[in-house]
Design a protein that fits this description.
8 helices; about 15% strand; about 30% helix; 8-stranded parallel barrel; alpha/beta
């Protein structure tokens, strides 16, 4: 049977979350006090509690992003945040660090972050088997790859349909960590692919500086029908660093 479709919008903060709900989102995702894969978009548990109570009035879900790789010293705090998210009624946790599965988590649905590099049916079947209820697929998959994953699994598939793309593979880019010591998997990506570069050492090298590594933003709004046919049920807008205007426009248009 076909479960219902959902549009998932980003919330940098409480105001963005409310704006998303007012403009038709079925779910919003927001970072908690820590470990939310966007260091600049942390939120207090009080604000998330407020967002949850507002969202639930309109039957909108709230997903809490807890999706960085964790150091051992951070696990206790991560579990505290997970328990708090559950107690204030959040609808799911988005996680990357599978070590959390070994911990005493509350009975809250778990979504596998795109940072888990979810590119194959085998990987997605594994995540389904260990207890995830939803998987955010890697952004670089083709329609036929998504279809293949859908054919071999039963888990809800979530896909990005709008927003920034990484030049590398989802969850597998180490350029920022290598160059600046700031890891994308720790929520600190320095966006090395957004800088201008000049190319040397090739036969046709170009001294001209340009944005060779910076991909254009994604906009799949014309392809949503095809994605539904391929088995996608959850459609995600990127942008937890974006402002309210972006969130309103993208949500209303999708």
């Amino acid at each position: 049977h076909m479960n219902s479709l959902e549009l998932v919008s980003p919330a940098k903060n409480l105001m963005c979350g409310i704006a998303a709900i007012e403009h038709g989102a079925d779910a919003v995702y927001i970072g908690g006090p820590a470990f939310g894969a966007r260091n600049a978009a942390s939120n207090s548990l009080e604000d998330i509690a407020q967002l949850v109570s507002y969202a639930h009035r309109f039957h909108v879900k709230v997903f809490v992003a807890l999706n960085t790789i964790l150091y051992d010293s951070e696990i206790d705090q991560a579990i505290e945040i997970a328990n708090a998210a559950y107690s204030i009624g959040a609808d799911a946790l988005i996680i990357q660090d599978l070590g959390l599965l070994e911990c005493n988590l509350p009975p809250i649905p778990l979504h596998a972050s795109t940072q888990l590099h979810n590119t194959t049916a085998e990987k997605v079947a594994f995540l389904e088997h260990v207890g995830f209820s939803q998987v955010v697929l890697a952004r670089e998959l083709s329609l036929s790859q998504i279809q293949q994953i859908h054919n071999q699994t039963n888990i809800t598939l979530e896909c990005f349909i709008h927003g920034a793309l990484c030049v590398c593979y989802s969850g597998q880019c180490y350029m920022s960590a290598f160059a600046t010591g700031r890891s994308g998997n720790r929520g600190e990506c320095s966006q090395m692919c957004r800088h201008a570069y000049s190319i040397t050492g090739l036969q046709q090298h170009s001294k001209q500086s340009a944005y060779y590594l910076s991909p254009k933003d994604l906009n799949l709004s014309q392809h949503i029908g095809d994605m539904i046919d391929a088995g996608v049920q959850s459609f995600k807008i990127e942008g937890r660093l974006k402002d309210e205007v972006y969130v309103k426009n993208c949500t209303a248009r999708s």
